[in-house]
Amino acid sequence: MPSLTADRRARIDAELEAHPFLAELGALFEAAGHELAIVGGPVRDAVLGRPGNDWDFATSARPDDIERIAAGWADAIWDVGRDFGTIGLRKRDHQLEITTYRTDAYDEGSRKPDVQFGDSLDGDLSRRDFAVNAMAIRLPSREFVDLFGGLDDIDAQLLRTPVTPEQSFSDDPLRMMRAARFVAQLGFGAAPEVVAAMTAMAGRLEIVSAERIRDELDKLITSDHPVAGLRLLVETGLAEQMLPELPALILERDEHHRHKDVYEHSLTVLEQAIALEDRLDAAPDLVIRLAALLHDIGKPKTRRFADGGTVTFHHHDVVGAKLARKRMKALRYSNDTIDQVTLLIELHLRFHGYGSGEWTDSAVRRYVRDAGDQLERLHILTRADCTTRNQRKAQRLQRTYDELERRIAVLAEAEELGSIRPDLDGGQIMSILGIPPGPEVGEAYRFLLDLRMDRGPLGEADATEALKAFWAARPQPG
């Protein structure tokens, strides 16, 4: 069995000493006649020197015993999934999950694992996803357990499974996506036999619920190296099962190479958007990353070869937004997230109508209004979407967008662009025109909003005069 180096032992001891509640909890379980061990990601991260705040434990105790032992010690206790053997605890600022030793397996056509409680830590570790996550620290003794070469795999920066990949992925097919996620999070590579099994078994992902797939995809997308994980999903065929629009971007290049490789372009845009995330309040930002990845998914359906061999993708922004909405609904994303991502995709080409700065103030106002609260993300996406190798062209586009942002800032300071409203509200419209609530009020409101966009703030008197003139010239019913 591989042994800990002195520096890794010191790292683990420092982590345990920094969190004395771990020893306290271990002593409680030991006094009750049960085993307790830290398992999975927290152990791996302690070995790697990565900070962590959430703790996962495995125990010989059953859920009722876990609750009884932790009662009076934990600040809060909740049932995460009793049928799956998991009880959640909170101790000060720390979230803890304690799970009874398990040996899970999926039936051939089931979306839910057949949970069976085990009786040993060794058996529990053998059923974990990867060897780097199959290490444990027994409490309170601090004994380090590594039965499957997790330390060696950390040294090799490699993902292997404790048992055969085929058995591991049959037990839970979502582990194939987890392999891609850990490639993205840790910067590790997947062992050849793991990649082979992922490729052969990709179809098994169909039995996993959309919610679990979405959660795993989100963790991958918001990791440090998402492109590496996405490439693995595409290369193994897993992306075809859950995000087929991504591999569809690998279009056949025309013989004269008159258009970019859309797949590679999209991955580059994702990387460039991540590099600009410091413009946002918080990073990583799931919305901008999804929008960057999916912004061109309308291109395969809109590709046309014009006279002379040129390639066009007319309206791929609108088509892409519709495709993204459909896919994200299938993956059970929230309506807010779907609306934000699809709006960015729909607007990502708008800037290119700006030319070298010819937009009127009215057009700038409409750009801001249409982007709404996604304006800063739209700035990021538009800038990230420039992947040309022509430095002069790239610099020109950057200068032009700098100028657009400057104009937005000037107009925003003068006119509060972020909350553009007509100069008259609905109540004033009804009073001036002498009409009751109904569709006609909305018609008048839209006229005033368009007028506000075109001419800027008018003031109440000028807006009233314009409204009366509009209403008088309006075709009368009948």
CATH class of the largest domain, named: Mainly Alpha
Helical fraction? 40-55%
> How many strands, which pairing sense, and closed or not: the largest β-sheet?
7 strands, mixed
Count the DSSP helices. 23
* Low-confidence runs of at least 5 consecutive residues: 254-258
- Roughly how many Å apart are the termini? 91 Å
Instruction: Report strand %.
Output: 5-15%
Assembly form of the protein: single chain
User: Total domains, how many?
Assistant: 4
CATH architecture of the largest domain: Orthogonal Bundle
Q: Give me the CATH fold name of the largest domain.
A: Hypothetical protein af1432
Shape: elongated
Indicate the mean pLDDT: 89
Radius of gyration, CA atoms, in whole angstroms: 29 Å
Order of strands across the main sheet:
3-4-5-2-1-8-9
The number of E-state strands comes to 13
Q: By helix and strand content, what is the structural category?
A: alpha+beta
How are the SSEs ordered, and which strands pair?
Elements: H1 6-18, H2 21-31, E1 36-39, H3 41-48, E2 54-59, H4 63-70, E3 76-81, E4 86-91, E5 94-100, E6 105-106, E7 113-114, H5 121-126, E8 135-139, E9 144-146, H6 150-156, E10 158-159, H7 165-171, H8 174-186, E11 189-190, H9 192-201, H10 210-221, H11 226-236, H12 238-242, H13 262-275, H14 286-294, H15 299-302, E12 304-305, E13 311-312, H16 316-330, H17 335-347, H18 361-371, H19 375-384, H20 391-415, H21 426-433, H22 439-455, H23 460-473
Parallel strand pairs: 2-5, 10-11
Antiparallel strand pairs: 1-2, 1-8, 3-4, 4-5, 6-7, 8-9, 12-13
Helix pairs in contact: 1-3, 7-9, 8-10, 8-11, 13-14, 13-19, 14-17, 14-19, 16-17, 18-20, 18-22
EC number: 2.7.7.72
GO biological process, one term: tRNA processing
Pfam families: HD (PF01966), PolyA_pol (PF01743), PolyA_pol_RNAbd (PF12627)
